[in-house]
Amino acid sequence: MHYRSMGNDQIIVVSCCCRDAFYPERCRIVKASTYLGAIFLIFFSTLLVAGGGLVLRDDICIVSLGFYEAHFTAYQTNTSGNTEFCDTLPDLGETLFVLDYLHDSMAKVPIDFRVVRDTTGMGQFVQSQDLPPIEDLEAITVFYQPPLVESDASLQINVTFAQAGNYIGIVTAGHPTKDLLYTAVFPFSVGRYYDFGMATVILFFFSVFLVWLLFTYFYRRPSITAL
């Protein structure tokens, strides 16, 4: 760590130090892996932040649409009774989706619900901008519920799945006083089908690459023979 003083202020410059008298190129490996790791962490953290989505909070699934929030639950009563599911539905067949509104104003605005097949290849990292335009969205739509105003603050949707695979739920809600729409996009799987998408595959292989770089440096250092 290096310091340079300028008047009453002190500027601190932090640098990554690495010294290896035997194989200085390994210092470059460590620095490169550090920088690459930081870049990929920033990149994938941006993928995880979307305009809406499904998050797990205190073991409860929450759908977030702008300033709106709703408790999201899925049931497959024919095969699993009253068991609650979030983003992994184990069986095909009839599924009940329930959105319990957590904001009073949601009971006053129209809200629609759409389920589409996941053709984005983004898996759990999918965001609204990854979806095709609405005219193309119709071709992959499995279910669509037009906008409804549910004054009892609970939206219940029955969807029957005939094919295992990855799907995307899309919930859209209007603003109570302004001409605005808020959208939540959340991926889920049906029928014990797991396809984590290209983004996850890239992250996995990059992690393996970083482990290999660090292994090269830490476990293949030359031995020092005493004279």
Q: Distance between termini? A: 34 Å
**Proper CATH architecture of the domain at 52-200:** Sandwich
- Estimate the mean pLDDT confidence: 76
Q: Which structural category fits the helices and strands?
A: alpha+beta
Rg computed from alpha carbons, rounded to a whole number of angstroms: 25 Å
Shape call: globular
Proportion of helical residues? 10-25%
Reading the helices and strands in chain order gives EEHEEEHEEEEHEEEEH
Task: Look at the structure and give the CATH class of the domain at 52-200.
Answer: Mainly Beta
CATH topology of the domain at 52-200: Immunoglobulin-like
Q: Mind summarizing the main beta sheet?
A: 6 strands, antiparallel
Strands, count: 13
What does this structure look like?
There is one protein chain. With 227 residues, the chain is an alpha+beta fold. It has a domain at 52-200: Immunoglobulin-like, CATH 2.60.40.2550. The protein is built from four helices and 13 strands. The strands form three sheets. Strands 3, 4, 5, 6, 8 and 11 form a six-stranded antiparallel beta sheet that branches. Helix 1 (24-48) packs antiparallel against helix 4 (197-218). The longest helix has 25 residues, at 24-48. Residues 1-16, 43-52 and 223-227 have low confidence and may be disordered.
